[in-house]
Amino acid sequence: MTMPPHATARQVIGAAAEDAALAYLSRQGLALAERNFRCRGGEIDLIMRDAETLVFVEVRRRASARFGGAAASIDAGKRARLTIAAQTYLQRYRMPPACRFDVVAIDGDAVSWIRNAIEA
């Protein structure tokens, strides 16, 4: 992803984590549908296709797994915002496809793909 020249260090790190997650999921056979979908209610980092299933992916990165790690950083508020964003995205379909919420957690150099990580 190309970053604007005024991007903060945090934005650059976040974009790199999303790049790594996208590459990882692509190697697992998923195809990108959309990146950084934003709406009034929230944002979804990656929207992928896994065969006929639409996958909403939250990417989290932490320097290490200390203090619970990347996956543990997704709180109830974030889950609610992801659900709202997914509902908004799905409005474009007359008959919405099957979908799920996954998390790609990056702790240091370790990548974990957690399928069905968030109940909607």
From TrEMBL:
Pfam family, one: UPF0102
InterPro entries: Restrct_endonuc-II-like (IPR011335), tRNA_endonuc-like_dom_sf (IPR011856), UPF0102_YraN-like (IPR003509)
Domain of life where this protein originates: Bacteria
GO molecular function terms attached to this record: nucleic acid binding
Family matches, as Gene3D superfamilies: 3.40.1350.10
UniProt family annotation: Belongs to the UPF0102 family.
PANTHER family referenced in this protein's UniProt entry, alphabetically: UPF0102 PROTEIN YRAN
Name the record gives this protein: UPF0102 protein JJB74_17395
